[in-house]
Amino acid sequence: MKEYILQVNDLCKKYGSAVALDHVSLSVPTGSIYGLIGENGAGKTTLFRILAGLSHQTSGVVALADAKTEAEIIRQRRNIGFMIETPALYPNLSVLENLYLVQMQYSGKKDVESAKKTLELTGLLEQGRKKAKHLSLGMKQRLALTTALLHNPEMLILDEPVNGLDPMGIAALRKLILKLNTERHITIMISSHILNELEQVATHYGFLHNGRMLKEISASDIPQSAGSLEQYYEKILEDGQ
Ligand code: ATP
User: Fold this and answer.
1) Test site for ligand 1: of 37, 40, 47, most ligand atoms within 8 A of the Cβ
2) 126-157: pLDDT as tens digits
3) Nearest atom, ligand 1, residue 208 CA
4) What is the pLDDT of residues 37-68, one digit of tens each?
5) Quick one: how far is CA 133 from the chain centroid?
6) How much is the pTM?
7) How far away, in angstroms, is 239 Cα from ligand 1 center?
């Protein structure tokens, strides 16, 4: 097994003259839950969009598992499930029909059994016949996660998945993330502003600030004396100024 499932080297992204990512390097260990932390505008979504192939870097290298060339990266990207920004759902189709459409895009055929199994995993099976537009926000997030999981990816990339969820929804998502990681051995990269939530699941962290990676560290290497993750984050920011 490869030590790192995903590595980014010296990645830069400019929008005109504005720098969104400034020579970012990071390594996501295989099997980890990697928390990407950064303030609004730090560059988290920009990074995830590049990883998903929705945007292209200005310079720098993305390496997914062993893939380095563009063709290999495209192939390897299929081993990742992405949940980035607002999920694109068809509001007038049912939950199951939305999943069938995603399956068709991926493999050209629908697989009822697999769709139902994945819904069971994410706790949405009972809502299978409900129209997407009638789902609560938390259920929509779950459906987006279900679509990301449909093709049995080795890695999940989740951009602010707890956004808008109530405390019960957040706790349920936390359990699901831990289950996917421990039982299914899915590596998970997740961005969140809720540090005390991230602290309960993440094994590794990357601290992004103004488009720069200030520090990467494993949870176990954060000194006890640092206090909470929030306190540690504040210190990293102070040191990085
Ligand atoms: P948030 O936590 O608010 O989602 P983020 O860390 O995801 O923030 P990004 O959305 O990646 O941050 O934005 C990084 C920077 O790039 C910001 O300054 C943003 O304004 C800028 N940016 C992002 N997308 C574009 C775009 N399409 N055109 C111009 N600037 C952009």
Assistant:
1) 40
2) 999 999 999 988 888 889 999 999 989 999 99
3) 6
4) 999 999 999 999 999 888 999 988 887 777 77
5) 24
6) 0.92
7) 23
